[in-house]
Amino acid sequence: MVDFYVYYKVRSVDASRLAPLVHAMARRLELDAGVRVALKRRPEDKDGLQTWMEIYPGVTEDFDEVLARAVGEAGIDALLAGPRRLEIFTDLPPCA
After folding, report:
1. For the chain, what are the domain ranges?
2. For residue 39, what are the CA distances in angstroms to 5, 19, 22, 36, 95?
């Protein structure tokens, strides 16, 4: 299992239109794929932009296909100010 961290920029003026789409996508993923989703954003706006993050803990390595499909169906890309960036993390092995 791995954790997915997806971050992206959103124009502050588009945030109120994007938020319901991202929340609906998260709910669908929770119901349909059985994953937990945490939605975050940096507290400050900078140059008219906000940074948002989606966190998907404990997913399989092929979850990127499920996520890509969900993003496409949600239609959120048109409201982003740049690309979505995916980072994948694994747990550190325990000390011997």
Report:
1. 2-89
2. 10, 10, 8, 10, 31
Spatial distance between the Cα atoms of 12 and 32, rounded to a whole number of angstroms: 30
3-state secondary structure the chain: CEEEEEEEEEEHHHHHHHHHHHHHHHHHHHHHHCCCCEEEECCCCECCEEEEEEEEEEECCCHHHHHHHHHHHHCCHHHECCCCEEEEECCCCCCC
2-89 adopts what CATH topology? Alpha-Beta Plaits (3.30.70)
Is pTM beyond 0.70? Reply is yes
How confident is residue 67, by pLDDT bands cut at 50, 70 and 90? very high
